[in-house]
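Here is a protein:
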Amino acid sequence: MTDLLTTLLRRWQLPDGQGAAALQDFARRHGTPLYLYSAPLIERRIGELRAELPAGLALLYAVKANPLPAVVARIAPLVDGCDVTSAAEIALARAAGVAGETLSVAGPGKRDEDLAAAVAAEALVVVESLAEARRLAALANGRRPRVALRVNPPFSLAADAQMGGGPRKFGVDSEDAPAVLGELGRLPLAFEGFHVYAGSRCLDALAIAEAQRATLKLACELAPFAPAPVRVLNLGGGLGIPCFPGETALDLAVVGDALRALSKEAARRLPAARLTLELGRYLVGEAGLYLTRVVERKTSRGRTFLIVDGGAHHHWHATGALEGRRHLHFPITVVGAGRHATERVTLVGPLCAPHDTWAEDIELPVAGPGDLVAVFQSGAYGASASPQAFLGRPPAAELVIDRAAGLPEPLPNT
């Protein structure tokens, strides 16, 4: 058993503790496959993060990570706004009580209706190209939309998903930014600052700190070309959670120390600017469980397969299909079977597709039809990031839970 799985079993009071009985009850009442999101874990994670962040730094929730309305509503009072990408996400955040002026609307390829919704909400629009800025100005109808320029930096974050450096669909290349800033100054737009996102899902605190320092340096170099003082510097996100064997949790204290030092430097070099972080997976990823039930146990040429009722159509990232990680897998356990003998099995979903594989040659407690399987670290990029319509199978149910719902409060993130 890996250190990560041991930690998660303890956190959720599994496999044979009070948590196991509660999960079995949820599965009986709501069926499987089923996503459960722990409100206490979300609240605790945000509290721990807030304790490390420097005063005045704005924390945004990236709605794309988990757009379930009940999740967004729980998070909204705990953050300073939301990162959204479309008219639908703007409406979702506003319905959750998020003030329009605290929304940051980012992402390439925004449609006119997305830009119009951002203008109506008085949100900050992160423009990703000069062409987009011109479309936004044309839609403004006499208003001066608030904008930040997304810059594709000359560096990237050593992470799972590199989103900066080299040719990218994101933002304006840093070498072109001075000319674009000059053009922005000639449009009826209210310039507020910069947005730089170097990479995603990084577990190296020192690498994150270095990328953030480089972002501040880049912003300071571009500030003289800006049509107005820099009031916002969005450092992106990139804080990861461990999902695969051998990974360890991010050292949040190191990130916090670096951000406090960076905040002091920013106050000196960009005195009008407010630093911003936008985080999704880091806030909600560890607070989610995906529950699926074994449908069949079979042997093929000496290899044992457990076929469960959920798969890649519900949890694309966890199956490894998206990243080509068939050799890796999210932490997985059989609920309520901690003292059973174990065996090596291949855990697969029900789809008529070879990539629908949760884990190959994984050691699990011996299980058969009817047994419940839990996939940890499932709070982010799950249902909404998966092809749920594939093969016409029903979508997974999603629930936000707390102690009042019957599940014991998960133990601390240790």
In short: The CA atoms of residues 32 and 214 lie 46 Å apart.
